[in-house]
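quick one
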Amino acid sequence: MEKLELLYEGKAKKLYRTDNPDILWVEYLNQATALNGVKKDAIQGKGQLNNQITSRIFDELNKNNIPNHFQEILSETEQLIKKVDIIPLEVVVRNVAAGSFSKRLAIPEGTPLNFPILEFYFKEDALDDPMINDDHVLVLDIATQEEIDQIKTIAFAVNKALLNLFKNIGIQLIDFKIEVGRTEDGILLADEISPDTCRLWDIDSGEHLDKDIYRRDLGDLVPVYQEVLDRLEKISQ
Ligand code: UDP
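structure w/ uridine-5'-diphosphate:
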């Protein structure tokens, strides 16, 4: 596979074309951002941690037959993915109250929810990614009803698989965000799944093992992400 020109540079990743029109080459960057890009820092070692964590998570989702874009890991910071047309939605699943949910509804962080819930956010920087409902998704022509149903099925299947995976390594999955894309073969899970996109709390200590370390200035993110990778590596050996 040949790495060709740069197609897109996001907040934490670069996407390159390859000699196969259906496959893209991703490079994970040493970049952390929060608050829609307002807070931004270079963090040595973060790119390789997220690339390796997300690759292991996608391996696990493959075992659970969840349709996704992941092809293979190439190096510490690079992987190959299937090209998809990203649907401009951030799909959040929550098991426990935290973050914006806790703030908006005055429900203390750590309160378990009676069942997993799903929220859609419209990915539109200029609007600050507002939360929207199914009717908004339809009326704005973001996705069809059939696609909404497929997206929800994928999101809850990811939740089930990840709850299990993280429980096995002593981590409680509080919530996470996924993105999905269209291909000729239907909707695929896309983007990354890492401590940047999940809230992960140590089951014993309650310690944050995710990007809240950075968002809330709680300390150094690198050893925490390394801990998540070490635990994932231990169970896949
Ligand atoms: N999340 C994300 N990207 C975003 C917003 C949220 O990956 O742009 C993830 C976040 O890491 C958490 C979940 O989605 O695991 C729910 O985030 P929340 O709505 O509570 O927002 P926050 O408190 O991070 O602003």
